[in-house]
Amino acid sequence: MEIRIIYEDDHVICAQKPNNVVVHHAFHSRNVSDEASLLQLLQQHTDDKLYPIHRLDRKTSGLILLAKDTSFVSDFQQLFTNNLIKKIYYGVVRGHAPEKLIIDSPVKGRDANAYKDAETLLETVQKITLDIPVKPYETSRYSLVRLTPATGRLHQLRIHTNKISHPLIGDPKYGDKNHNIMFKEQFHCESLFLHAHSLSFIHPYTDKKITLTAHLPNHWQTIFDRFGWEV
User: Which of 57, 111, 171, 176 is catalytic?
Assistant: First the structure.
């Protein structure tokens, strides 16, 4: 599997992570011999040892920043901590989502014991009603949404869209099983429709504004062609 490099300088690489690829294996992971992580795949194309600056979960595709030295990590992470980096995601959700909505439901932290503040701006870009029945209805409705998170909690966007009853298509944990099955049967699409589309920030070492974007995965184009959508 070839990983696309979106941007590279002396400090950082921005790569486009495919769906269903882990960024790195957990210590003593049982999957190490079964599948290559993003870091392992990148090592096939660069001599640099890379260090993830932020996270994308296995199911999500799109942009991820990786530092070329451990000494660079904290300066880039401060951009996320201080909300100085703008992240825009796209998702396909069940139903006709609100035109614009701030979702601020708390989300459990990585320790899964305490809830933490979380905020996501949702904006609906496209809507469609299909003459394809999905139980219990005779038709099915979907929306293309733009998601701008102000915080970075684990599974935040997946949880927030589900919280407002518009779960992401292809989400096996927080999604709607009936709609996921329909997308698999009708469109041959099984992957999660959540994509980290763009990052915009002031580079902490060069002071230049950096804006990076990633093209949508192939299964998105299948849906866009069928629905008549575009970004």
Answer: 57
